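INTERNAL TRANSFER SHEET
From: sequence group
To: structure group
Subject: Putative nickel insertion protein

Please process the attached sequence and return the structure record in the designated field. Keep the field labels unchanged so the import script can parse them.
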Amino acid sequence: MNVLYVDPFSGISGDMLMGALIDLGAPTQELVSTVKAISQDADLEIRDEHRCTIRGKRVIVHLPKGEECKERGFKDFLSILEGCLTLDPWVKERAVQVLRILFEAEARVHGQEVERLHLHELGSLDTLIDIVGTLVLVRTLGIEKIYSGPLPISRGWIETAHGKMPCPAPAVAVMAEGLPVYGVETPYELVTPTGIALLRSLAQGFGEFPEMVVRRVGHGVGARDVGAYPNLLRLWLGRERRHTHTQVMEITTVIDDMPGEILSYVQGVLLKEGALDCYIIPVIMKKGRPGVELHVISPVGHEARLMEIVLRETTTIGVRVRPAERVCVPRERTHIETPWGRIDAKRVEIFGRERTYPEYESARRLAEEGSIPLIEIYRSVK
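Return from structure group:
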């Protein structure tokens, strides 16, 4: 399994993430075509630069004159995404999730509804290009799991459309809730709203370096050359070899007054919004009432969003939230040739022995296209 560790010793931003992923070896053809799909007038410049003698890749987005001053709302960004017809479905769905994380934080800061909020500095196409570009490169490299180190929180002031604001930016402070951070005496913005929104969506754990066989290290160069320290983002790309122990949050609640089809819908929403797993167990409640217990496994730092969905979309009036540890065996994506065509599969390694499991959606499509019993496709893999 390809695993990525984000080492934000000097902070994180969307352009630094793109630069570091390119430095890891991600091809840029799809990235360039995606930028053009977002705006025909936008151009991407990728070049080598040094910070404190360390080389890395810097990505600069060139936009039409006046674009930096444009304000956009959540629906404006969604409309642009819908116009990108060739965009990978996973990239599009995850981009919507990142935008929602960003807009919900800004809405909370300004006391407005997401749908009525218009961003100033973050309203330009640069924000969308940073988000979509990062996701395209992650997909291109075949990265399946992402972890991150703690985030450095600086002090000082930044200029915004609303005047001077303290570091970190108020929206960054909101998005940092539940994440490990540490303070540094640096008078510059280290963690940008776009950078932390991407991490909240992509990272499955924060903290210790995961055990892996390192394949490559890449550096993304930040715009500012401060001289006193290397303004770089470091990414470690490797292959996971052993069981991984990840801290997660478990959200549970019991429900006895909802139709099953609505629970199924809620389950789909939770998985789409970033739940690692979601399952429903039949239970007998007090006074012999039949009901179900809803279990949601959430990445650390994402539980507030998923808990909000449970409370909003179900009839429950309370949930339990507790920390848990998740143990995963090494796995990787692969393809298998069957008598009827190729399907996606997952190969896992358990105590030195390999097992291969077909991916349901891929097998289902093949079954429907060829009018083949799904069980026959599964048997051909075993």
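Handover comment: Residues 105 and 175 are 6 Å apart (CA to CA). The chain has a mean pLDDT of 90.
Transfer complete.
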